[in-house]
């Protein structure tokens, strides 16, 4: 059952699905769809309901011709969730709670469109208790997502993304990589290479309290995004400007890296709304 407070979003799969299961997307398999594929003889495709009289009369070999259609098929959607130390940050919103909201929205959208939903969570390693294979079972999906609320860790890096890519199925799907991407460029590249069989949508979670809403003057505690350790910093205008500049440079570097993979990221800097992903896919179409 889909929780009442979870919102779905519009999305589109730009390839033909090879799945044998019916769904809402263009498929490769023959079946009871609306998209005409070709004509075949009744001997080769014995379905009398599809007989085409006009094509039969035109056939020089006088064979009864039937119309063959392509079946609309399903596709897997994955939420790949970074739960490393930096993702425990709580500012304007909690990053971990945002991960939960995004994953729930993906699951809701998948189940509403008869697609499969799978989830892989990781920090230093893949977290099996918070990971599930793609399925049509909505209850199982939301039960697994609900467990994110109780998850906490400290001093854990994000190298588990390399292992996480191996948990994705072979069938091409939409992979929503949810992270703040406070990790080395080389690690992001390895993660993207490991997911090259899929269409990847990086959802970058940044909070204004990380780089904009900093103390104006005086001592303040900051969490190192990679180690999770607390640091005491004496804030002044120059330090505030330095933080803002570092994040601007980081965004430029991420955009350039994703562009080399022909990927456009989605930045979420406040409470998540499903409409953000609808707008993202609308822009991809146009």
CATH topology of the largest domain: Rossmann fold
Distance between the termini: 34 Å
Q: Supply the CATH architecture of the largest domain.
A: 3-Layer(aba) Sandwich
Strand content: 15-25%
Put simply, the count of helices is 8
**Rg of Cα set:** 24 Å
Number of strands: 11
Mean pLDDT: 82
Going by helix content, strand content and strand pairing, the class is alpha/beta
Task: Report on the architecture of this protein.
This protein is of the alpha/beta class and 286 residues long. It has eight helices and eleven strands. The strands form three sheets. The protein has a six-stranded mixed sheet. The protein folds into two domains: 22-73, no CATH class; 76-285, 3-Layer(aba) Sandwich (Rossmann fold), CATH 3.40.50.410. Helix 2 runs antiparallel to helix 3. The mean pLDDT is 82. Residues 47-251 form the DUF58 domain. It comes from Methylophilus medardicus. This is DUF58 domain-containing protein.
Element layout with pairings:
Blueprint: E1 22-25, E2 30-41, H1 53-58, E3 65-70, E4 76-82, H2 95-112, E5 116-122, E6 132-135, H3 138-146, H4 160-165, E7 174-179, H5 185-194, E8 199-205, H6 208-211, E9 218-223, E10 230-235, H7 237-260, E11 266-268, H8 274-285
Parallel strand pairs: 4-5, 4-7, 7-8, 8-11
Antiparallel strand pairs: 2-3, 5-6, 9-10
InterPro entries: DUF58
Organism: Methylophilus medardicus
Domain DUF58: 47-251
